[in-house]
Amino acid sequence: MCTQEYYLTTPNCYFSFEIDRSVFKRLRSILFLRFMSRRRYPKPAREIVLDFLRSVGRPVGLGEIVKSTGIAYNTVRGRLYELKKKGLVKRTSDGWVEVNAP
Q1: Number of structural domains, the chain?
Q2: Taking the model in full, what pTM does it have?
Q3: Which residues make Cβ contacts (< 8 Å) with residue 3, sequence separation at least 6?
Q4: β-pairing verdict for 3-9 and 14-20
């Protein structure tokens, strides 16, 4: 068995140990699922984005949404397109705006 020293960092811990490579890969996947699969925001990102658009009440650019909500650029972009498919928001020449439900 060939052992090597590995370092593993999670949001709350730092590990350094000698272990077989195959065992390390398995341990890393277990720890990743345990620590990294937690939701980063208090509620789903699409709800945060939609709430922000409702509160602003005017067309808003993607960059402003990212700065104001603290959600990652690609996450906001993806959630906006999901909301657009559902007909909850629309893209105008001035930015994104909520579509008012009848």
Answers
A1: 2
A2: 0.59
A3: 18, 19, 20
A4: antiparallel
